[in-house]
Amino acid sequence: MSEIRLPPQPWRVSSDTVAVLDALEAAGGPDCARFVGGCVRNALIGVDVHDIDIATTLHPEAVIRALESAGLRAISTGIAHGTITALPERRPFEITTLRRDVETDGRHAVVAFTDDWRQDAARRDFRLNALYADREGRVFDPTGEGVADARAGRIVFVGDPHQRIAEDALRIIRYFRFYAWYGRGEPDASALAACAAGVDRIGGLSAERLAQETLKLLDAEDPRAAVRAMAGAGVLTRLIPSAANLRTFEALVRIESEILFAHDPLLRLAALISEAPEPQLAARSLAESLRLSRAQGERLVEALGRDAELVSWLSPRQTRRLVYRLGPRVFRDRVLLAWASSTRPAAAIQWRALLPMGETWTAPRLPLSGEEVAAAGVPQGPLIGRVLREVEAWWIDQDFIDDKLSVMERLKAVVQGLVL
Hints:
Number of strands: 9
CATH topology of the largest domain: Beta Polymerase, domain 2
Shape: elongated
Largest sheet: 7 strands, mixed
CATH class of the largest domain: Alpha Beta
CATH superfamily of the largest domain: Beta Polymerase, domain 2
Oligomer: single chain
Number of helices: 22
Distance between the termini: 95 Å
Strand content: 5-15%
Radius of gyration: 28 Å
Strand order of the largest sheet: 3-4-5-2-1-8-9
Number of domains: 4
CATH architecture of the largest domain: 2-Layer Sandwich
């Protein structure tokens, strides 16, 4: 078999990369460190490389000494599992000692360090991730199938998929995440069967890990096939119980990918539960079960609100009123979800026309203060807020009139009716 090499790429020869590899090789020799995983896979298939991970035969303490001896900063980010982060000038490098599993319980693993590259590859999740390359770009493929999988878009577990899932149940979600990002064609049957068989193991995983993998999956350009496969394997409803109907989700992905040329994983998550009988209740439950951040949870709930009438034929005036009431982000989210849930293809032009208003119109501020209300004769207390709300309602109805005199005249009328 002919030697496989990575194509030339700037990250391989950057000053940071050279500095880290030089430091490791000074301590462990010329073959003690190799690039591993995603950077090798992505370089092979022509996808941008963002993170550079390095595998090494050096033990963690030796890695730290080697980096510090070269004047590089080292952080013990996961020393029990052999991981050190190197911080040269521009970008971090995650450096992990070759490992083999000693004990696993589906969530955590006890590992032993090794100098055997094949043992390290054997404990990885998928064959296309069990790839290594030296600094010259020579690729090492211990499973014998990783390069072919990467090029063909096959996501196949290393060894027995049931065993890989027993070691770490998060690999169920990771399987569908990698299929969404790199898969082509039908998913691997043995992988699907193993995911379906291990679905109950998901309940034992940390919410944070599940949320991270789920949002990464939904951040793929087109995750529809992966989500359909998740649903077919019984994984989707185990992860998101209220995701009973994929129609709105699939329509949203199509709108984002084919029309807007952008995508939003959190809005896609909202679309997955938009058909629930009580979507906002489902959103609160999901935000809690996945331990989403407060901002993420609030956005999920607000996106699924039904407290404002939203139709595709809103006039510009009605649109401004709704943007003012909801805010531009909530308005955009609700328009996109309503568009995706619409069964009228002809309305697509109308839905699309609503979006620019939420993006370009800046809602004005009511040209009236509480001090001005008090100066008009309203006593301090709750009545000032009521007067402000009455004037604001009129001002909105006047399409946000920019006329201070008219606002003050309206204030006088409200004060006469409520106070004098």
